[in-house]
Amino acid sequence: MHGAPGDHVEWAGLETEMEDTCRWVNLTTPGFDGEDERRGNYNGSSADFAQLILRLLKYLKVTKVILCAHSLGSIYSSYFISRHPEVVEGYINITGIVNLWYTGLMTFFQTVVTEYGYNS
């Protein structure tokens, strides 16, 4: 999963190197392909992206994956792993965010609330 800004092209060199080793599937995050991200039921949330991944894996008849993520792609990957660990064989994080999605976000939110208060 690519970072932001970016798209599947940032993986082209690594994909070429790996083509004799494994099946490689690139996925461009909707909205990073020059089109509106809101398509069908997809509205840009991590849950929507996780469902997009699951639908793609089902379509390709893939039952286990090794996710490789860079930068912002690590947020989507972490969310996916936390919700669907049975599908994930391994995870490679390349300069991505190291906190688990939910834990990291809640820690940030609680810090902001504690330090600055929260007005909805």
What is the count of structural domains? 1
Unreliable runs, pLDDT <50, ≥5 residues?
A: none
Q: What fraction strand?
A: 5-15%
Give the CA-CA distance, first to last residue. Answer: 33 Å
Order of helices and strands: HHEHEH
Please tell me the overall pLDDT. Answer: 75
The number of distinct helices, counting runs of at least 4 residues, comes to 4
Rg, alpha carbons? 16 Å
Find the structural class using helix and strand composition.
Answer: alpha+beta
Residue share in helices?
Answer: 40-55%
Biggest sheet descriptor: 2 strands, parallel
Task: Report the count of strand segments.
Answer: 2
General form: globular
Strand order of the largest sheet: 1-2
Task: Outline the structure in words.
With 120 residues, this protein is an alpha+beta fold. The chain has one domain (8-116). It has helices at 12-18, 46-60, 73-83, 101-116, and strands at 65-70, 88-94. The longest helix has 16 residues, at 101-116. It is globular and about 55 Å long. The model has no long low-confidence stretch (mean pLDDT 75).
